């Protein structure tokens, strides 16, 4: 992806969103299914026996998830259905076929003496084999998975880890192009981090993580979280007052209101400022390497920052998303500088302002927050010397 973007030179790329979606899918297929691809192949290539790519079939399924909740997928293939709905039916069949092929391939790998690298699919296959074995000996296993449950887990894995991370990366890149001073700030830390292994490098790349947190704070994929009270009344204390929630009361948590509350985030709560995630200390005179090692990452008050939800139902993929995001930022900003493509004699300031207008023109598409017109402004990637 780095080479693809930097080779476009001054014309830039308007494919930031689809390209980050491809990247996120390649990460998921590697960690989930043990399959690795080059950037221009894999999920964006139509596989033999298919009419759609894995990426396109999954994207259509995810962006129309509400339609699938209303109409069973078998109805979408009926002859009198509109072409758009038939297309969704085709996407559902294609994605199902891809999942079946991945499952068959993993079972074939598991049967060999030297199996591949452990991944999500291999774990699900082992659980499925346990279920099959339990039935063969006449026992009922609550831990086993049948094929339908495996497919459900795969879809949930893609739903939770695809659009959310891809959107966050895309938003962050546009925001960094609009705020070049933070590119320099992050790049200082990247240059000071010589380690390549996860255990040593990840804890040091806190500025990359701060970029992620600040992007999620203002432009998180999930803007509200539905919850419900238990079967018993719940008593809450808010600003000294006791409030009673009746049993089974539906509650929607307004994530963006929490993430922009001036009481927590200050008077500039609506401004994108990654440095807010560090304690302000006077260490400018110290070497950068020592600064990076002594930075104190702020933990906001409990319940005030919940991009992955909170409590026992928090997203289990939080750390996975963090590692993926930090790795992408360290790779991109360590090799390139990003800026908006200027048109019609625009000044640099006007170009950055146009980027912010594009970011702020976002809306919920199906279930996640996305830019309406991400192709409006091209991003230029200049390789660093």
Description:
The protein has about 375 residues and is mainly alpha-helical. Helices cover about 50% and strands about 10% of the residues. It has 16 helices and 8 strands. The strands form 4 sheets. A two-stranded antiparallel ribbon has the order 1-4. It has a two-stranded antiparallel ribbon with strand order 2-3. Strands 5-8 form a two-stranded antiparallel ribbon. The chain is globular. The mean pLDDT is about 85.
* Shape annotation: globular
Largest beta-sheet details: 2 strands, antiparallel
Topology pattern, helix = H, strand = E: HHHHHHHHHHHEEEEHHHHEHEEE
State the low-pLDDT regions, or none: none
Radius of gyration: 23 Å
- Mean pLDDT figure: 86
| Helix share, percent | 40-55%
The N- to C-terminal Cα distance equals 18 Å
Counted by DSSP, the helix tally is: 16
Instruction: Give the class from helix and strand content and strand pairing.
Output: mainly alpha
In terms of DSSP E residues, the strand content is 5-15%
Count of distinct strands: 8
- Spatial strand sequence of the major β-sheet: 1-4
Features of the shown structure:
two-stranded antiparallel ribbon, single chain, 385 residues, mainly alpha
